[in-house]
Amino acid sequence: MLFEVTRAKEWNKNLLDTVMRASENCVPNHNILIPLPPCPHPQCNKITLVNVEKCLFKSPDDYDRERRQWGKDTTPWLETGTNHRYDENGYIMRDNGTKETWGIEINSLEELLEFCRSVDEKITLRTSDIDKKTPWLEIYDNSL
Known about the structure:
Blueprint lengths: L1 E6 H6 L1 H6 L5 E4 L2 E4 L9 E10 L5 H10 L12 E5 L5 E14 L3 H11 L2 E6 L7 E6 L4
């Protein structure tokens, strides 16, 4: 099973660079160039995930109406992205390009435990913010 892996401290350290400059290892995300953080662990490899956008609207028409009402970007929901669909709760979703990140293949509980021991720092497990389905391991430096 593929896991996304990030390291919290490097992300915070690179936050200023995110806004201030672009470099050759930048990836696009919502029209802002975000640097790919340093590799969080020697076993990780670069992976590409589909960037899924999810909104708390029950229909594309509701989204479009709300955006017009508040004078925000008036591009209709269905004119941007691909694979427009509804999630299990009935909210609208779409694929909006891809994003490069770090990942690791872990196929058993034993491998996951060995990875945690090799990191020897706090790790949280949740679902990726990028594709809303890949398991995400975030490593927190002991200094945080």
